[in-house]
Design a protein that fits this description.
single chain; alpha/beta; Rossmann fold; five-stranded parallel beta sheet; 6 helices; 52% helix
Length: 140
């Protein structure tokens, strides 16, 4: 049976920056290209990618990256009333950002595996299946 995935912003940044775990994201993308799985991307992920890369690398790189991500075999999921209420429920009961609540709601709504590299999303394991990529080691 094919698996569906939601890639969190941290998973895309891991892939783009070639961090540990990027090979896992690459395998998921290849499976989607072969139509063996589906990948969803929340509208919030694109917003986060855009502003993070703009702050770190400039506007031109941010725009180019969003265009490249949208060319990948991913389906963009926009907000809708049901998704908004689900994100609100998650935000009310978990200590997550609004963006993370929408990304988690997307995974729950699509019955997809949430792929991430964000320790804050570990709490979602009881709400949806997650695939945790290796966390970055914090510098002492």
């Amino acid at each position: 049976m094919a698996k569906d995935y939601v890639l969190d912003t941290s998973a895309f940044l891991c892939y783009i920056q070639g961090e540990e775990g990027s090979g896992v994201v690459e395998k998921i993308l290849h499976a989607a290209k072969r139509k063996e799985s589906r990948i969803y991307i929340s509208f919030m992920t694109l917003m986060e990618l855009y502003y993070i890369l703009w702050q770190e690398k400039g506007e031109a790189i941010a725009k180019e990256t969003v265009v490249l991500v949208e060319a990948l075999p991913v389906e963009r999921i926009e907000s809708n009333p049901r998704l908004g209420l689900l994100a609100g429920r998650i935000k009310a009961t978990q200590r997550l950002s609004v963006a993370d609540a929408f990304i988690a709601a997307t995974a729950i709504e699509k019955k997809a595996i949430l792929v991430h590299k964000d320790p804050e999303l570990a709490v979602l394991g009881e709400l949806t299946q997650t695939l945790e990529l290796p966390y970055k080691n914090k510098k002492a």
